[in-house]
Specification:
Largest sheet: 6 strands, mixed
CATH topology of the largest domain: Creatine Amidinohydrolase
Structural class: alpha+beta
Strand order of the largest sheet: 4-3-2-1-5-6
Order of helices and strands: HEHEEHEHEHEHHHEEEEEEHHEEEEEEE
Strand content: 15-25%
Shape: elongated
CATH architecture of the largest domain: Alpha-Beta Complex
Number of domains: 2
Radius of gyration: 23 Å
Number of strands: 19
CATH superfamily of the largest domain: Creatinase/methionine aminopeptidase superfamily
CATH class of the largest domain: Alpha Beta
Length: 366
């Protein structure tokens, strides 16, 4: 992985901003820059923080529990332990390095941690600089090697879906299917789920982020499955809505409208168009069909090392798409008391269009 190149890009950015160093605590940003793969148990806990100087070798600051993994995974980083906590280590290290200005990720850093950093800055006469998007802006555009990793993640996700879907007997619960999906992902080599799998049957499928329960799968009703996995650090995200048994006229109508909207969105994707324009292309199909009020979320989002990242494909976003971005196209129609249909594919933005990464068409058999 081109970690040195990524670090060099961050260092160049620091020099342009006249900042001596930056702390990187967001887990995907940390992995993107170092290869260090451990996650955090929560935002109040960390398995490590990167300290990147505007010049010179970078540091990974961690504690005893993670030292071995840090040494194995973060090649080219100097590993420093903080037995008494991160602030005491920084107090010593920043003075030794002659740091006069230190940036930190304001969108991820807890307010309590930011307060401690500010207090440390006052004590040491160091300017603490909150920054946003320093690493995320790099992550928006995927390299060829990253796109290949995303393709592998999508392929494995589809393989898991096809395996589980073909095994459904009809007497399972939503939880049964969700657990089987998660287990199959692990068995086939995934690091885990990129988000908690959504399985929603019948009326529950009208909830865009339904939580699987002990509800039995209902025949002749919608079954919505939204799933994704992490493979080699890269996420996939796919939604399929199916009908176990015989689809009625209404289901077929809703399903075909959503598919038409998805195709319109995909066909609208190319470098140079705004995210809003892509959203509008898909949304118009649903609005013109009379279901505009039943499609209340954005059309899609970026996918990479995080399952939700920039760009956002929404009616509010005027940002222009760029070649190398990987985004989802996921229109839906949700009718309380009846159910919902959402279809989601991942595409790579190209100069003259896009490449649809999903090949699964099981859901078309209605």
């Amino acid at each position: 992985m081109p970690y040195k190149t990524r670090i060099s890009t961050i260092q160049a950015g620091l020099r342009r901003k006249r900042i001596d160093a930056v702390l990187i605590s967001q887990p995907q940003n940390r992995r993107y820059l170092s290869g260090y793969r451990l996650d955090d148990h929560g935002i109040a806990e960390t398995s490590g923080i990167l300290l990147i100087l505007k010049k010179g070798s970078p540091y990974l600051l961690t504690d005893f529990r993670f030292r071995e993994q840090a040494e194995q995974q973060a090649k080219g980083f100097e590993i420093l332990l903080y037995p008494k906590g991160i602030i005491p280590l920084l107090q010593k290290l920043l003075v030794e390095l002659g740091i006069k200005s230190l940036a930190f990720e304001s969108a991820y850093t807890l307010h309590s941690t930011a307060e401690k950093l500010n207090q440390l800055g006052k004590k040491l006469s160091i300017d603490m600089v909150p920054v946003t998007g320093l690493v995320e802006n790099l992550r928006r555009i995927k390299s060829d090697s990253e796109i290949e990793l995303l393709k592998r993640s999508v392929r494995l996700n589809e393989e898991v879906f096809q395996s589980v879907y073909s095994s459904i007997k009809g007497d399972e619960t939503e939880i049964d299917i969700a657990l089987k999906i998660a287990a199959t992902m692990r068995q086939k080599g995934a690091e885990g789920e990129s988000f908690e799998t959504i399985v929603a049957t019948a009326a529950a499928s009208s909830l865009p982020h339904a939580v699987p329960t002990s509800r039995k799968l209902e025949k002749n009703r919608p079954l919505l499955i939204d799933m994704g996995l992490v493979l080699n650090g890269y996420c996939s995200d796919m939604t399929r809505t199916l009908c176990l048994g015989k689809a009625d006229k209404k289901y077929k109508e809703i399903h075909r409208i959503v598919r038409k909207a998805q195709l319109a969105g995909i066909q609208g994707v190319r470098a140079g168009v705004t995210a809003k324009a892509v959203d509008s292309a898909a949304r118009k199909v649903i609005v013109d069909s009379g279901y505009g009020k039943q499609f209340g979320h954005a059309l899609g989002h970026g996918v990479g090392m995080a399952v939700h990242e920039e760009p956002r494909i929404s009616p509010k976003s005027r940002k222009k798409l760029q070649a190398g971005m990987v985004i989802t196209i996921e229109p839906g129609i949700y009718i309380p008391g009846w159910g919902g249909v959402r279809l989601e594919n991942m595409v790579v933005v190209k100069e003259d269009g896009c490449e649809d990464l999903n090949k699964d068409t099981t859901w078309l058999d209605i």
